[in-house]
Protein 1
Amino acid sequence: MERIKYVLSWVLWPVLFVTCMAIAAYGFAHGHPVLYFDIAYVLLIISLWRLEIFMPHERSWQHPDGQSLASILHTLTSKGTVQGLLIFSSTIGLADSFGGAAGTGLAIWPEDWPMWAQVCLGVVAAEFALYWAHRAGHELDFVWRFHAIHHSVTKLWFLNTGRFHFIDSLMSIVMGLVVLTVLGAPMEVVKWLLVVTAFIGMLTHCNVEMRFGVINWVFNTPGLHRWHHSKDLKEGNRNYGENVMIWDQLFGTYYNAKYRPPVDIGMKDYMPVAFWKQLLWPFLSAGVKKKLEPDFEYIAFIKEKKP
Ligand SMILES: [Zn+2]
Ligand SMILES: [Zn+2]
């Protein structure tokens, strides 16, 4: 059994990712991208849920942390906000600006490239914005207030994937879409970016024992993202990439040490347990926080001083 687990640990990430992408590609090719994306996404969730029981990375992360409901509600509110934004932008005609000649972009997008190459370019280009949106979430106090919701969990598992304050999600998706709009990317590339981000995000947070090798050089993996959830800023303020690591490599925030990432993850700031308080938390003053939660202690925002 240990041998099977060892082999699985090497092949799981690429097999799951490629299978999900193949199902989504079939959907795109046959005119049902949403349906086939949903099928792949549900299959991925079920696979990771079973694998987390069968071969966990950290056994102690299998225990309930009392945050499952809050994480699900954050997932629903942030996904709902992003979907609302996409519907709103299409009703006011913003979505028409995606796409080449007729669009408002710079019309420098290489529309004659094969779609797979355009998707790769779209992911790398949008990732530039996602990288800086995420990095701002760790280096600017008023953005960290929102991003702290994601880092308040003390264990990583697939259910934490969508746990973002909806303002946090909104900021990063708007920045990503602005880059693609300016470049004049077609809507199909935008759809593929959302698909890739959904699959990689779900894989990134899973508590499954996996090995990555050279995959870590290119893609964001659970191995890299576990460092990002460390309480130690030397490890935590690293690996900001959502999908690919190219911008971390270029801007010097890539981190992958030889030793095992910490089990005791999270953050030093206080976060209330209830979902509705977490939603309000970024907007409240320290005084109001103390009234709502007597255990609250104010900790000044720390911007890591790089050597
Ligand atoms: Zn973060
Ligand atoms: Zn995370």
Protein 2
Amino acid sequence: MESLRLTVYKHKKFPLGRLRYMDLVIKIRNITRDFPLGNEVVKVLKGIDLDIERGEYVALMGPSGSGKSTLMNLLGCLDTPTSGSYLLNGKDVSNMSDDELAEIRNKEIGFVFQTFNLLPRTTALENVALPMVYAGASKKDRTERAREVLTNVGLADRMDHKPNQLSGGQRQRVAVGRALVNRPSIILADEPTGNLDSKTSEEIMKLFGDIHKAGNTVILVTHEEEIAENAHRIIRLRDGMVESDTKKQFQSEGARVGQ
Ligand SMILES: Nc1ncnc2c1ncn2[C@@H]1O[C@H](COP(=O)(O)OP(=O)(O)OP(=O)(O)O)[C@@H](O)[C@H]1O
Ligand SMILES: [Mg+2]
């Protein structure tokens, strides 16, 4: 499989190097994304390479207009690149049809948006269970799993509330629950705290921390250095290219445990 590699790493405790199993959940090579605009073409992503291992916690930063959301939409299979390759869990998704992408998205990706994007006339429980409807799960399984996930995000007592009966932070918790419900390989969040006050942002960041600690791969876009500090790796985009990519610490074993 493309995503699996054995790599020898030099490590203090193991002077001879130690064998480490590297499990790439994302491998992109020379990705570009152009948008036609009238008679012109806007070149937004200009050749991005990126490897993300299972279990990493990544913050994607960069000035407004640098291409963060465009890249996240590609990573989340909401869009396809103009050129370049994207392997998600070793599978090439760069040339898939819309139907194939929809299936991969539902199974492998949990997306959290700045504006929550919940169905308004639907309860928290039904919002969280929705991706399982598309996955073909039974009503019983959906309800059981959605209850479990809502309890994990601290909303056991708000399951029957509709979005307008919830606070901003609670709505974002529902959105995080919806992102987790199908046990995806990656959680992508585009400015998940952009519409929240600082205390509520902290709560949501704690939740992302817990999700990461449970073994999940998390990639989030933020403008705030303080939020980015929660991540173990910070990738900065500038003008459609990777300007810097820094890892805070050696990250060990990437195996994903339950959520
Ligand atoms: N559909 C489109 N057609 C034309 N240009 C687009 C389209 N979508 C995005 N762009 C352009 O691509 C550039 C990057 O947009 P993107 O939304 O990825 O930026 P961003 O880094 O997420 O910015 P922000 O921090 O403001 O959210 C912008 O200059 C934008 O105008
Ligand atoms: Mg954006």
